[in-house]
Structures
1.
Amino acid sequence: MGRNDRHHRSRFVRHLTRPRASHTWTVTVDNDDLDAPVTPVEANASLPLRALGGGSYAVIVVGTYGRAGASWRDNQPIIGYAGRFTLQGGPLPLVPTNTVRDVTRDGNAVTVTMGEVDSSHAITVARRASPATERGNEPPRYITESLYGHPVLRNALAHVEAGVERLTVRTNSIPDPAMVSGWTFSYAGRTYEAAERD
């Protein structure tokens, strides 16, 4: 899917002490340059978003009951509202970031190198048999859009192809603590375990 010229406006209550007050955010989706890293965004009026495919989403608006004019981060209690919107279009493709500088395959294993030559951390993502779990105890499930916010997992799973069982990502980034001891998740109907490798 190329550039999306879709706009969505939602109205949310801005000050609960003023029941009729409202505020409008404009949400703009642009899928140009999908290989660029995706980072969180904040805005008071226009919210530019990237890496979204067709489907239903929600924008979360954060506020507070605290002091007027103060930052919501330091102003308790914090509250949030969500506005739902729908985009028409095809599914979002999973592409690696432009920080990938080398990809090699050896049998059923793929190694992806991110960043500088002296990449000091290695995260291995390996396929696992789907565990027999009770309803409600299933491993976390990722969708493509959520992987765009996790560069290591994104760069690993973007290189899954027939016969690949294990993917190692070499990076200078400090790994997520959950990956150090082993972390199981699912994506596209398959189960994986991610762990830091010495």
Note: The radius of gyration is 20 Å.
2.
Amino acid sequence: MLERRNPFESPTTVGDPTVSNTVNRSFGATAAQLSWQLPLAAVIVSIVGRAVLRDQSAVFGGLLIVLSIVGLLAGITAWLSIVLFGWRRILVPATVGVLLNSGLLYLFINAMLALQKLKQG
């Protein structure tokens, strides 16, 4: 009788309980990855949400700010974790995430200030 095997697993690790197929990532690498993925998710959710629900655009603006702040904090946390885990797989993603989140927050705050000036006259 033939055994059912996953064709994508290497033959040496099939059925071996001592071999783990998961990637071990440090907390710093996970925070760095989160820091650049959150602003992209925030922009996508904001664009799609505003297109679908035009009445709730303030909710999506608030969500954009919250996700950007969380992403910025994740990037700063990843930078601080370089002391513990080393700079490999942390420095570049964390830097990209901090720059993206800072840019989004800068644009959003400037847009809010401009809207406030327009409302005042």
Note: Residues 27-120 form one domain.
3.
Amino acid sequence: MLICGKIATILIGTGFAAQRGFAVLPALHRTVWIEFGIGDEMKKALKLGWVMAGAILIANCDANDIDGPIGGPCSYVKYPGSAIIVSVEQDTNQMRTCENGALIKFTFQPTDSSASSRYLYPHRSDTNQAFLVGSGCSPPLNWALSRGLVVGSEHSCVRWEIISGTCSPVGFGFPDIDYSAWGDSCEARTALSRRG
């Protein structure tokens, strides 16, 4: 993930340099800037191409292998507890990943009732949290139901808060839920279904 992120950063930086009429050639320990004379439209096109390539690379860097928060190396304090599912509904957001996506909300309850007084991020509530898969997607409804994520069900859960690094500051994990194959249950959205 680290090398992938560095390559993506180089691609995005190259895009912004191209808009100014420079080519950026990353060398071993330095960056070489080469000026070139092209029109403004070409500069814009180059910027867009390089920035999009970097964004696509970031989006796909080990996307299927991510286990936990993104952006490591990071350290966390963890609060074990349980989550009670409070709602399960169809995800109607136009930007949803799956046509059959589900909005699943839960309330986290730490095992130690005094844990919330020690939270580093007390503004991040334990109630009405979204159950997400992958890199922040709503899960497919059929997959969620097969994992027992129904209203009123209780599941082992961990709240984690960052103490060092640049990853997500707060998150929740469900250690007893098998996250594998959620993508296989996702009904792909078609171009037509995305418009409406």
Note: The mean pLDDT is 76.
4.
Amino acid sequence: MTLRARRYRAFSRAWAFHPYTLVRWDHWLRHAEFPAVHGTYNRVAETDAVLSAAVARDIDDFIARQSRRSLLPADETVARATSRAYLLEELAVITLQGAAERSARIYPGPELASFKAVRQGKVLGAPPGLDRDYYVYVSFERRNKAPVPHPAQLVA
């Protein structure tokens, strides 16, 4: 058995009986504390230079990625306003998730500047909770071009 197969088997056994709960996004939008947390992020994004700059950087990065893919809407002003609203909603929801339970957010890309600033405690007045949510960046790019085996092929 290959080293990769042994690691996959150990990982799958370790997590096979780990309890989990699937909680949909709408649950957090209806959470009793969502309006207050979301409102706080909206106010802080207007008054805190660190969060304001981080949100602007995240939006600029998003606009640049969409432009490279020719996916940007015709009205960039609308795209910026929509992106800002989305980021602040996401900050509020993930803050509530972190406050509810420690977790790890596994994502195939670098952490957004706005989340990083809040998580690191650089944003004065940010609601507590995001500091309990760990960010894990996972790269799915392969270093070599060998075909990736199907998970069923890894278990002997």
Note: The chain has one domain: 25-146.
